[in-house]
Design brief:
By secondary structure, the chain is mainly alpha-helical. It has helices spanning 3-12, 17-20, 40-51, 63-78.
């Protein structure tokens, strides 16, 4: 996790939720409908989770899983 995100989360826990709505532009992907103090995981990851649903035939999905799948597809097309 980025040190900027962690520092921002720590700072946001010290201010009210109304003040936290004015999140700086260098953190564009956070879910502003969530409170960083109440549910930090949802605040940071909700947009990625909604954009990348876990397929029914897998138990997880991450960036490395997507990279491995793209690599296997490229290898199959070469063969």
């Amino acid at each position: 996790m980025s040190p900027r995100i962690l520092a921002l989360a720590a700072a946001l826990c010290c201010v009210s939720f109304a003040q936290a709505a004015a999140i700086p532009e260098f953190v564009p992907d956070v879910d502003k409908s969530q409170s960083a103090c109440a549910d930090f995981n949802a605040w940071v990851n909700n947009h990625w989770i909604k954009a990348n649903p876990i397929p029914s035939d897998k138990s997880r999905l991450g960036g490395f899983d997507q990279l491995a799948e793209k690599s296997q597809n490229a290898q199959r097309s070469l063969v």
